[in-house]
Design goal:
With 298 residues, the chain is mostly helical. It has one domain (39-297): Heme oxygenase-like (Heme Oxygenase, Chain A, Up-down Bundle), CATH 1.20.910. The chain is built from 13 helices and no strands. It has helices at 9-16, 22-38, 43-46, 49-55, 61-87, 92-106, 125-129, 147-155, 173-186, 191-205, 209-224, 231-255, 262-297.
């Protein structure tokens, strides 16, 4: 993702009015340089080997099942981290922003800009009532709109059921490490730590891994499972494309409104990305073991 080279006109106007010092602007540019050196080049953003392999679509049903089970654990336990982020929000505005994500995860759809007809069948719910943007304030709740239930409709096509997914007991060591790091860092009480983790997570999420997963799943769907619904992944991809455009604006707004501890911010960003990387590396090691076992059996 390209970083901004200059501050916004709004900040420049405040500098001209004497509301923000040039020294503060220089400090912001130094932070941007640190981000470009210490966060954006992280392996999980630039070289995710599992997603690169998955994108090729040479995956069988066992590969898809294992991936979906682990992703379901991450998706379900993410709710804990998001709740902690909401509780520990430094401002009411930040709490509202965190609640938007939390409630949408649980099934409150964003209030649509245009009226849509609610579908009678759950398989059509994603296209008919779920929006990629808007607000949960005044939105409607549907059990079937909860993100975890999107996954349930998906996993049912590869022979999995509710009892097979989403719980800690279903997670591998690397998956649980990632989930616990999300809770510890992303949901931290320390504002500077939480901000660093959120910023790094947004940059990871916007780096393109959703598109790689969708590509692989599309190939599997066309080859083996034509009824497989992919809305969980395609929706998140659309949302992240939109978030990418706001990430840097949010950083600038935060920096000039909070006396940011840059060391905590950068360290938290690196630590959460290490946690994310552990998740994907675990999946990559699992698939290599399956490949080795197949060769041995063959």
């Amino acid at each position: 993702m390209k970083t901004p080279e200059v501050v916004s006109q709004e900040i420049l106007d405040k500098v001209n009015r004497g509301e923000i010092s040039q020294k503060r602007v220089d400090e912001y540019h130094k932070l941007l340089e640190r981000i470009k050196r210490e966060i954006l080049p992280h392996e999980v953003i630039t070289n995710n080997q599992f997603c690169a392999w998955f994108e090729k679509g040479k995956i069988d049903r066992d590969d898809v099942r294992h991936f979906l089970v682990q992703f379901s654990v991450f998706s379900n336990l993410f709710i804990e981290a998001q709740l902690k982020k909401t509780i520990n929000a430094p401002t009411l505005e930040a709490m509202h922003a965190s609640k938007q994500i939390l409630m949408n995860e649980l099934g409150v759809v964003f209030k649509p800009t245009k009226k849509k007809t609610i579908a009678d069948t759950s398989t059509e719910v994603e296209n008919d009532i779920v929006q990629e943007e808007g607000t949960v304030d005044g939105g409607s709740f549907f059990f079937k709109a909860a993100h975890f239930e999107w996954m349930l409709r998906m996993i049912s096509h590869v022979g999995l059921t509710f009892s097979d997914v989403g719980k800690r007991r279903h997670g591998t060591k690397s998956t649980l490490f990632f989930c616990d790091e999300l809770s510890r860092i992303y949901g931290s009480e320390d504002t500077h730590v939480g901000l660093g983790a959120s910023f790094a997570v947004e940059n990871w999420a916007a780096a393109g891994f959703w598109k790689e997963l969708i590509s692989g799943l599309h190939a599997f769907k066309e080859r083996e499972c034509p009824q497989l619904p992919l809305a969980f992944f395609t929706w998140h991809d659309k949302v992240e494309d939109q978030h990418a455009a706001h990430t840097w604006d949010e950083l600038e707004e935060t920096f000039f409104s909070v006396d940011l501890d840059q060391e905590k911010f950068i360290q938290a960003g690196k630590e959460i990305l290490n946690g994310v990387n552990a998740f994907w590396k675990g999946l990559d090691e699992d698939r290599k073991r399956r490949e080795a076992a197949r060769k041995t059996a063959g």
